[in-house]
# Entry
Amino acid sequence: KAGVTQTPRYLIKTRGQQVTLSCSPISGHRSVSWYQQTPGQGLQFLFEYFSETQRNKGNFPGRFSGRQFSNSRSEMNVSTLELGDSALYLCASRKADTQYFGPGTRLTVL
Amino acid sequence: AQKVTQAQTEISVVEKEDVTLDCVYETRDTTYYLFWYKQPPSGELVFLIRRNSFDEQNEISGRYSWNFQKSTSSFNFTITASQVVDSAVYFCALSEGGQGAQKLVFGQGTRLTINP
# Structure
């Protein structure tokens, strides 16, 4: 069974640009969550989607948004990028109260 | 508010030594889950174990064992006879509730280095 896949794996953007990251959950998993990992703040929850609805949101500015499609694939978008948005963005799909993570997208903002 | 504390930032041991990673948590809920994840240099978080708040039984899986004590709000992880492949960052995490929306709160992680 394939794991969680995330694309792209690496991304370099400049300040002010926007970016879209993609996540495909494990087959049969309907919940997708996103996390940001930085050296300073550690792993922080961004949001969770289930059946195309956002069910939970972390403490991030409105520049961070997401969505989920009918096939459970999810995208997150960050607009007006700032240097501090440089991070590893991890997606997780959930079944039976356990989240399984993908390899992450490493975003560098210059 | 939920909080997870991993007081050990870095641990370095020689191969074949036993090592214990500490995790202390805070929550007001009576129903919650605790997790351990491993993050190798590749970056992916690998699920190791889940324990719910009603199950205080210790668990052993090969060289790995976990000790959950509600009385001290701790969920410690021991690696017996450590190997170089165990080198990684290990995260303890907490989530509240069950079937509904789930948000994981992570500790800061413990970087474990096993030296040959």
User: Anything to note?
Assistant: Residues 36 and 89 of chain A are 5 Å apart (CA to CA). Chain A is about 0% helix and 55% strand.
